[in-house]
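Page 47, continued from p. 46.
Same chain as before, 185 aa.
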Amino acid sequence: GVTLVNPDTVYIDGQAQLAVDVTIQPNTHVLGKSRVGPRCEIGPNSVITDTEIGEDSRVVSSHTESASIGRRVSVGPFSRLRPGTVLADDVYIGNFAEVKNSRIGAGTRIGHHSYIGDASVGKRVNIGAGTVTCNFDGTAKHRTVIGDEALIGSATMLVAPIEVGERARTGAGTVAISDIPADTT
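Result:
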């Protein structure tokens, strides 16, 4: 069955689907056509809207909307997944991170205080604290592409359109305005 830790504070929409062994913590809403996989833990204080969540994942004190979350993913606390977000398996999204219209590859870590918008992020990438994909130039949105196993240093600004190659690194405080080739710092 499903465990509702405090049923009086939980709202589950009639269209939502919860698999076996799901735990819903207090002050949590599961809305729209959301689907939550087996052995997930949602909440406390989360709002899940039209989101698919894979098995063994956790969403803690966060908001998701029209997102897809893989298996064994951890989100939050205090993060937001906006429409078009796709998280592959084994992704870690820490506190105060926002992801919009982006694909995040398997095993990637976005620890905290970052904005990733209109991006394709590869596998096993580490996004340092305070990283921003600067996707809007005042007129149009632009994409950022980050290759597998890249290491993005804290407080990096990636001014899109930009591509960061596989295994490339940025130092803390980098403002990148042109492509970064693979295997370079």
